[in-house]
Design goal:
2 domains; globular; 81% helix; single chain; 380 residues; 11 helices; mainly alpha
């Protein structure tokens, strides 16, 4: 019987079939998990970002992980349901008034615009002119003019209701996965570190630690800074008496998270106050504007360095590029990709030149990278 070693053609066929089989398994697994991938990514970002809070809470609760995870999960649910309850209750409280207003408009026509409409920044005068033109129409002509817009608005609301329902499902799924990670986080981190150690050796373990540090750096430096700027800007808008201060504050929060800054809202409001003769209120808002703008350059670098010793040249392009690529979740994914790529590139260059590999970019005091041993589940 021939026991010769298989030839190169047989070996190539075996390797090709093995790679093809692995590719099919990976593709099938991703296809099965596709409905859960977005929620899994968000849950991972939430769990990694808030893990230090979970550990502190667990210590305060006598070391009970289940109780700490329950508290953290409850807080996440409240972040969804409290604003939702306030919005729904406000709509229900105003529903009777809206019905009466619709009946009055259909019988008597549109009333003149309130005085505050003209005082709105930028769009106030044009909005008042358009309102006066509609108020001059008789009820039947007004109804004919408004009906097409009402149909479009109802269709839009119906589409948004479906999107809102899907968003609610994704959010609840994210909270559920986050709750599992809060309870079993060390085990998941250990398996992830073992996988990357199998791929890249010691450097793979450092990559997982670096990814966790980058996520926390973004959560601290970008999100916390945006929240502080939003609060200060909101106080300034209310103190200056700017109309729709709540809506403008929400816009400022989105702009700060998108790294566009609060000046796009605060500067036009300040200029509008000066042009309308409210010099005192405009000066108050100008002070808040300057403080809020400067805070971005002072607080954010400090918080990022506290989360991870990663260059801002990696964090900022990663945040903006990730946001343009993947939306809000790209805020976290972008910096992680750039940080990991930079670390691997530096390691490859050092190994090619015979130099020692650079140390991983972790925050001071984080401790050395330890090898995960059996029975020990290190956190990321």
């Amino acid at each position: 019987m021939d026991t010769a070693t298989p030839g190169p053609s047989r070996e190539l066929a075996r390797i090709t079939l093995s790679v093809l089989g692995i590719g099919l398994l990976l593709g099938g697994s991703l296809r099965v998990l596709q409905p859960f991938l977005v929620s899994l990514l968000w849950a991972t970002m939430l769990a990694v970002s808030t893990w230090p809070l979970l550990i502190r809470l667990q210590a305060r609760l006598g070391g009970r992980r289940g109780a700490a995870a329950a508290v953290m999960t409850t807080v996440l649910l409240l972040l969804l349901f409290v604003p939702l309850y306030l919005a729904v209750s406000t709509i229900l409280d105003q529903s009777d008034r809206m019905v009466d207003l619709a009946r009055e408009i259909s019988t008597r026509g549109l009333p003149p615009p309130p005085h505050w409409v003209e005082g709105l920044p930028v769009v106030g005068r044009k909005l008042e002119q358009r309102w006066l033109a509609l108020a001059a129409l008789d009820p039947q002509a007004l109804t004919e003019r408004v009906t097409p817009y009402l149909k479009s608005a109802l269709a839009w609301f119906a589409a948004q209701a479906g999107s809102f329902g899907a968003m609610m499902v994704y959010f609840l799924l994210t909270v559920g996965i986050a709750a599992i990670l809060y309870v079993k986080g060390e085990g998941a981190a250990l398996q992830l570190r073992r996988f990357f150690r199998r791929l890249s050796g010691e450097r793979g373990d450092e990559i997982v630690l670096l990814a966790g540090k980058a996520i926390r750096a973004v959560a601290l430096g970008i999100v916390v800074t945006a929240l502080v700027q939003c609060v200060l800007a909101g106080i300034g808008l209310v103190a200056a008496g700017v109309p729709f201060a709540g809506v403008l504050t929400a816009v400022i929060l989105l702009l700060c998270i998108a790294q566009l800054g609060p000046l796009l809202v605060l500067l036009p409001c300040t200029i509008w106050l000066y042009t309308t003769g409210a010099t005192g209120r405009a000066t108050v808002l100008l002070v808040f504007t300057l403080v809020t703008a400067v805070l971005d350059n002072v607080l954010r670098p400090v918080l990022i360095k506290k989360g991870a010793d990663i260059s801002l040249l990696l964090i900022l392009p990663g945040v903006i590029g990730g946001l343009l690529w993947l939306g809000i979740i790209g805020l976290f994914v972008g910096p992680v990709i750039l940080a990991v790529t930079s670390t691997l590139l530096e390691s490859w260059i050092a190994s090619g030149l015979g130099e020692p590999a650079p140390a991983p970019a972790v925050s001071p005091g984080a401790g050395a990278v330890a090898k995960p041993s059996a029975g020990v589940a290190p956190s990321v």
